[in-house]
Amino acid sequence: MGQKTQPFGFRLGITEAHRSRWYAPKALFGELLVEDQKIRAYLDKRLNRKPPFAAVSDIHIERTREELKVVIKTARPGLVIGPKGAEIERLTEELQLMTARKVAISIIEIKNPDMDAQLIAEGVAEQLAKRAQFRRVIKMKSEAVLAAGGKGVKIQLAGRLGGAEMSRTLDVKLGSLPLSTLQAQIDYGFAQAYCPYGVIGVQVWIYKGLYTRQRTEEESDAAGGRARARGRR
């Protein structure tokens, strides 16, 4: 059933930590959850769907009593920060108006974009929207992932490929992809290509290797909100 399960949700609390980290009473939980979704949708539209096209891959949200912390993972940090920090200051002000809370934004640079599944999916979708030959696009992207150090990759397209009358599913798989192995570090990305003849779904799986035992235990404890106790020498 590995192919039927979203890799992140399958490993959540085991080797993957939550993307939203905060606690709220039951009466406020729904309101804050909706606010998280609005923040992610706004930042995706603001940074990915129009200039500066900052190649944002993921957004983490943390809440404390004093402030709302937003962590943005991007391959182009300079575009998010802007000249002399002008762009990030503007983003902070916009989010503070949206949430009526004090906001602090942090940037994490993605060193190797060819190993990020979400950025690969967005890149494939962008090429398909420009009517590029779909077989060539997914073949080149798959080879780029392996060249960047990936141990395995799978790219799947679904829809009216090439404008065909009947929709179908096509995938390319290179290398190893142990989807059912919990210790396997699987990155997953999804994007949609809006073409004149319909929408094409793009899914990407990248196998980066096995988690080390120490790292797995630390991330599992962090996901469960626990701190590891270190013994004295």
What does this structure look like?
The strands form two sheets. Strands 1-2-3-4 form a four-stranded mixed beta sheet. The protein has helices spanning 7-11, 26-47, 77-81, 86-99, 117-129, 134-147, 213-223; strands spanning 20-21, 56-63, 68-74, 103-109, 152-159, 168-175, 184-195, 198-210. It is of the alpha/beta class and 233 residues long. The model is unreliable at 216-220 and 226-233 (pLDDT under 50). The longest helix is centred in the first third of the chain and has 22 residues, at 26-47. 36% of the residues lie in helices and 28% in strands. A hairpin with an 8-residue loop joins strand 5 (152-159) and strand 6. The chain has seven helices and eight strands.
How many beta strands in the DSSP annotation?
8
* Mean residue pLDDT: 90
Count of separate DSSP helical elements: 7
- The percent range for strand residues is 25-35%
Rg to the nearest angstrom?
A: 19 Å
Question: What is the straight-line distance between the termini?
Answer: 45 Å
How is the biggest beta sheet arranged? 4 strands, mixed
Order of helices and strands: HEHEEHHEHHEEEEH
How are the strands of the biggest sheet laid out side by side? 1-2-3-4
Could you list the spans in which at least 5 consecutive residues all have pLDDT below 50? 216-220, 226-233
Shape: globular
Helix-strand makeup class: alpha/beta
In helices, the fraction of residues equals 25-40%
